[in-house]
Every structure is written in structure tokens, then in C-alpha cells.
Amino acid sequence: MKLAIVIPYYKIAFLEECLNSLVAQTNKNFHVYIGNDSSPDDPGELINQYRSSLKLIYTGFSSNLGKTSLVKQWERCIDLVNDEEWILLMGDDDVLGKNCVRDFYNNLEEVNCRNINVFRYSSQVIDESGIAISSTYYHPVIENSIDFLYRRLAGLTRSSLSEYIFRKKQVAKIGFKEFPLAWHTDDLAILEFSNFQNIFSVTTSTVFFRNSGHNISSKNDNTIQKNLANFYFYHYLIKEHSKIFSEHQILILWDKMEKAFLDDKKHVGLAIKYSSLSFKNFKFIRFLDFSRRYLQAILK
């Protein structure tokens, strides 16, 4: 058995629908690992109903890590995995189309032959009632992860963690980067786990991402933390991986980072990080021009 489906659990509202989508899989060659982040809603009784229909391992943790670090909660759930080679980290409110596992195995030989570490499904956004509120997002079968990033930055596509399967050895070797709310953590994982190389996508099965108003993506009371994560994400890419991107791509990252800075212009820590990165990269003219725009924004 090569596939582990890992569910970091906290919200019970849609867990039954999530698990039903796993029971409905046309290929049952997977294990399910559920890690309860000390939720006030005990899922034990519900989970027991699925023990005969799913190969399932459930662990209740005594501490709530997700409150301070979603990444640490993900990591301890991933640590539950036994000898599977691939990991699908699935939201407890998302839904897999019935052929998702089948299509993973049908394409696994080609994925391995191409030495690809990131597998991806098409996706569609659903609401609280499970009704589609977006069209289906499809991707090229073979796409460079950097090209995908810039498609996303241009607003041409979307992405969420549940629609990816990662090779476990890459997850163990590289790990997930900690950003506020784990915002952009999945984007960076796609880039780094793929070694900034190709993603393999299928168009014959879909993952349904739930925009329920209760998850981080759909909430609007966390914009400050999301903006911090925006800044740290672009700052990290420029600082750690600038040689991988073209000159034009790097300019886009600088523009994105500066916008995030201006959106939270009173954050002294961001000013220090921005200034240090500017001087290390000899961006003196850019720094002066941005400083002028920054002062104008402060004085308004």
C-alpha cells in the first residue's frame, strides 16, 4: 500500500461527508490517519462507524497545537503514517471525487518514471451545502511548479492543500515552512517538494474544497495575519531561492512583497527585513524609491 490519506481533525461539521468520500473511492488501496487536535467536538463515535469500511488509524492528541501552529499539527499527524510512500494531507471539510485514488495509481508508474514528487488533481470550490460555487480548475498534465506559482499570482488559477499528494521522503527531508496561519505554506511546499521542477496533474478526478466561512481561507477576520504571511512568503523566496527565478519573476516577487509591506506599513519588523534584503541584494535605487512611497503612505 503506497498512499496515506492524513486528516488533521478539528471541526466535526463536515467530517462525515469527508469520510463518506473516502468510502466511495473506487480504489480502496489507502490508509486513513486522523489526528484530533484536542477538538471540543469528540469525533470518536462518528469515526467508529467507519472502522469496518476504511483502513483507519485514529489518534486523539491531548494538546491543541493548531491554535498556535497548524504546521506542527500537520507534522504530528504525518508522523502517524507507517510505511506508505505518498501522503495526501486532507482538510476535514473537503471531499475527494470517487476516482481520485484510482487515478493516482493509474498514473503512478509514469510519475515515478519522470521522478516527480508532487501529484495534483483538478479542483472545484463548494459551499457549506456542498453546492459548487466555482468552475472546475484544470491544469496541464506536466507543469513546472514555478510556472504554476506565477499563474496563481496572476489570478489565473487557485490551489489548496487537499488537492495534492506529496512523496513522503520529500516531506520528511524538507518539511513545511511555518508562516502565520500556514498561509502560503502549501504554496512553498509545492515548490520545494517538487525541487522547483514538475507537477503531475490529472483532469479525470476532482477534489472539492469547501469554502464554508469557518476555515482560514474563507474567513475575513484574519487579514493582518494573512498579510504578514504574504510578506514572509515573498521575502523567503527572494532570500532563499532568488537564483531559481528569472529576472522578471524576481521583480514580481519584489512587487508582491512591497505591497504586503505597505498593507501593514506600521510593522517595524517588516521594515527591518525589507531594508536588510534590499541592501544584501544591492537594490539601492529600488529601496530609495520604495522608501519615498512608504513615507507618502505613512503621511496620508
Automatic annotation (TrEMBL):
<dbReference type="InterPro" id="IPR029044">
    <property type="entry name" value="Nucleotide-diphossugar_trans"/>
</dbReference>
<dbReference type="Pfam" id="PF00535">
    <property type="entry name" value="Glycos_transf_2"/>
</dbReference>
<protein>
    <submittedName>
        <fullName>Glycosyltransferase family 2 protein</fullName>
    </submittedName>
</protein>
<feature type="domain" description="Glycosyltransferase 2-like">
    <location>
        <begin position="5"/>
        <end position="123"/>
    </location>
</feature>
<dbReference type="InterPro" id="IPR001173">
    <property type="entry name" value="Glyco_trans_2-like"/>
</dbReference>
